[in-house]
Design brief:
Layout: H1 13-28, H2 34-56
Helix pairs in contact: 1-2
């Protein structure tokens, strides 16, 4: 996923870019426990959901 897919004014763009950067960092590290990877992915998903709800509640 590239940064060009999200406009600078997109409120979720930063969260999505952070999650994709975190995912690529985790993929580059071999030997990580799957539980840790799943936990971090769920945490990133939670951040995206909260930001979407915050935008929709305006």
């Amino acid at each position: 996923m590239s940064d060009r897919q999200f406009s600078p004014g997109d409120p979720n763009g930063d969260a999505i870019r952070a999650a994709s950067g975190l995912a690529s960092t985790l993929r580059s590290r071999r030997g990580r426990r799957p539980v840790v990877v799943i936990g971090i992915a769920l945490l990133a998903l939670g951040v995206v959901v909260v930001s979407v709800l915050a935008v929709l509640s305006r």
